[in-house]
Amino acid sequence: MNQEIFTKVDNYISNLLATEDEILKQTINSLDRHNLPQHSISPNQGKFLQVMIALCNAKNILEIGTLGGYSTIWLARGLPENGRVVTLEVDKNHAEVARENIVKAGLENKVEMKVGKALDILPTLIAKNEVFDMIFIDADKPPYTEYFEYALELSRPGTLIVCDNVIREGKVLDENSRDEKVLGVQRFNEMLSRNNNVTATILHSVGVKEYDGMAIAVVNR
Ligand SMILES: C[S@@+](CC[C@H](N)C(=O)[O-])C[C@H]1O[C@@H](n2cnc3c(N)ncnc32)[C@H](O)[C@@H]1O
Question: Domain limits at 162?
Fold first, then answer.
């Protein structure tokens, strides 16, 4: 087994079940045009998030880490007409590109973007008593544990919290790692293993993206 077969099978699945329309393709192309990193989720991961939205009947989603709005578009499209995505992005240039892509997708009424550091914005959402049905964490890795703790405060029993990139090509196994991203997700995964407020696991995956994993946690009743 190698990356070639993982890529082919991922493409096979997305051709069947997660086909990108022109808007999604243009969103990915816009990243190169504006010198943004190609760090969006894959089409199959977008579809996976939509399956999760359907599963938990989500109407209200919080996303931490917008980039060019690719995952935001998948999330918003998975919601019912009256659904809403609040998405947080620290980089003004990323936010501008995302805004353009969200408008092109006709989703500006469903998406509310907040520009700034997530650690500054999250307490303001808590102060407003915001509660989300689903939360997607996909930003900088060192504060993943803190993002998750804030996410719990923004949850109700049954809220689904999905956190991307927590396996990092298996580098999470390296106890001597000095990579701040690896250290961030190691600390996060440890916290998750001890957290009695949620029922959680990690799905690791291969595909068009590097070998990685998503943590999936449901807030307990
Ligand atoms: C992996 S990308 C998000 C990809 C996006 N969810 C997608 O799949 O299309 C991470 C994003 O988080 C943003 N970010 C990094 N640190 C942040 C912070 N402290 N607060 C908010 N956003 C942050 C980055 O600027 C980047 O755009």
Answer: 3-219
